[in-house]
Structure formats: structure tokens, C-alpha cells
Amino acid sequence: MARYPDIHAGQRITVHTLQGLQFEMALKDVATVRPSDPNVDPDPDLQFTLEPNASYHVEFFVQYLTNDVARFKTTWSVPAGASGLKRVQGLGDAVDGGGDGAGLMRSSVHGFGTIVRYGWRDGNSQVWVQESGSIITSEGGTLSFNWAQNAMSTYNTEVSAYSYARLQRIG
């Protein structure tokens, strides 16, 4: 199995080589709030720049706050020509608050551009989703976690502070 980065005996170790051994992280310091807008847009913090002809594994750990009308939906943007799939876990769209958000979990696999809809918790309680995937690029560009309200609502939907993402180049 190929490893990235490929380090040989006697090879000079550089900062770039060492960075290839680490995850790249993106952390939200403050919440992003979106009122009355079902248009899916990139999160300003949960983004990475991908190199051409490379393989990556990415994980998004997202805390969100919404209500029974607005709910929450996500999708990803990837560079043109990228291939792979994303795996998603979170409250199913049919979950209807219920105090603790108990209900069906969504666990599925999709293409990057597939819109995934999630449920909510009542009582101003946050909910989390985890989305991860493997990406093979042919062109460089931006990988972004995109989100919006599932339906128009006067309630502000937010992706909360301390949501984060990590990216590892694997080839």
C-alpha cells in the first residue's frame, strides 16, 4: 500500500514533508448564523485548499442549532473532476425535536453534491452531524462544507462555535 508522504532513507526532511504527516485542521471560533435562507452556501470556516492529482480523507464534525420549521441541510463543494463519496451520520430528517432529539439516526453514503437533510432538537439544544469522505482530485481547488436551513423560517439557523474539520492527505 502506498503511503503519503513517501520518505526514503537519507532523504532530506523538509517542513513540507513534515506537514504531510499531520492533519490540517479548521476550527470555528464563533458561530455562523443564517436567517431565513434555504440557499446552500459554503461555511466561511470549514474549508480547505486541495492540490491536483492527490488523495485525501476529510472529516467534518458540525454542531448546529435550528428549529422544527427551518431544520438543517448540507452538501459539499469539491474541485472539478474530483471523485469519491461522503459518509454521513446525524439525526434523521423525520426526528421531531422531542426534548432530547431521540429518534432515528441517518447513516448513509452519497455523492459530494447530494443534499442531506437532518432533524432538530427543541429547547434551544445543539445537535451534531459527522460527515466524512475520501476525495481523489484531478484538479486543485476548494473543498467546502456547505449548509442552509432546509425551509424558510424566521428562526436563525447556526453552525456553532467549536465545530471543526480535519483533512489528511493520503496520496
Per CATH, the class reads: Mainly Beta
What does the main sheet amount to? 8 strands, antiparallel
Q: In percent terms, what proportion of residues is strand?
A: over 45%
Rounded to an integer, what's the Rg over CA atoms?
18 Å
Q: Roughly what is the average pLDDT, rounded to an integer?
A: 88
* Element string (H = helix, E = strand): HEEEEEEEEEEEE
Low-confidence stretches: none
Give the total of beta strands.
Answer: 12
Helix and strand topology:
Layout lengths: L14 H5 L4 E4 L4 E4 L5 E10 L4 E11 L6 E6 L5 E9 L13 E6 L5 E3 L8 E10 L4 E8 L7 E4 L4 E6 L2
Characterise this structure.
This protein is mainly β and 171 residues long. It has one domain: Jelly Rolls. Helices cover 3% and strands 47% of the residues. It has one helix at residues 15-19; strands spanning 24-27, 32-35, 41-50, 55-65, 72-77, 83-91, 105-110, 116-118, 127-136, 141-148, 156-159, 164-169. The strands form two sheets. Strands 1, 2, 4, 6, 7, 9, 11 and 12 form an eight-stranded antiparallel beta sheet that branches.
